[in-house]
Amino acid sequence: MEIKIVKEDKKQFMDLLLLADEQESMIDKYLERGELFALYDKELRSICVVTEESPDTCELKNIATYEAWHGMGYGSSLIQYISTFYKDKYKTMTVGTGDMPSILRFYERNGFHLFHRVHNFFTDNYDHPMYEDGVQLVDMVYLKKDL
Fold first, then answer.
1. Within 10 A of 57 (CB to CB), how many other CB atoms are there?
2. What interhelical angle do 74-86 and 101-109 show, nearest 10?
3. End-to-end Cα spacing for the chain
4. How many CB atoms lie within 10 A of CB 119?
């Protein structure tokens, strides 16, 4: 397994980015200002984008693994890698996600805990209803972890 930082042509990963954030205009708001990490295990398996939000806080804006590789630890490996990568630069890493138990459990297993909610984020900021496992996403739930 190898993780690479991608500095150019980040949009080549749009198919994977769209698995985690299905509106390209929303991805465009953070893609170029963020650092993109790509995890390869022979071939591309997973990516994530991290942005600086303040001098001591970074945010995991997007993390996605191709569906065929779900449950194999690639997402957790990426979180472990970026947590180590940023631990000397930031004190805290945050992540915002839909209010879905399975997703929240994934982040909690990776050291994050709930810290606030933005009501109606998905309904106010996306041009179409967002669904995860057949459930409409309404609120954005933020989690954080100390680095």
1. 16
2. 50
3. 23
4. 9
Whole-prediction pTM value? 0.89
Give the model confidence (pLDDT) of 37-46 as tens digits: 999 999 999 9
For the chain, how big is the Rg over CA atoms in Å?
14
Can you tell me which residue has the tokens 């390209």? 24
Q: What is the mean pLDDT of residues 2-10?
A: 96
pLDDT tens-digit map of 86-100: 999 999 999 998 888
As beta bridge partners, residue 9 has none
Q: Which of 91, 10, 88, 77 is nearest to 49 (CA)?
A: 10
Distance of CA 121 to the CA centre of its chain: 16
Task: For the chain, give the secondary structure using H, E and C.
Answer: CEEEEECCCHHHHHHHHHHHCCCHHHHHCCCCCCEEEEEEECEEEEEEEEEEEECCEEEEEEEEECHHHCCCCHHHHHHHHHHHHHCCCCCEEEEEEECCHHHHHHHHHCCCEEEEEECCHHHHHCCCCEEECCEEECCEEEEEEEC
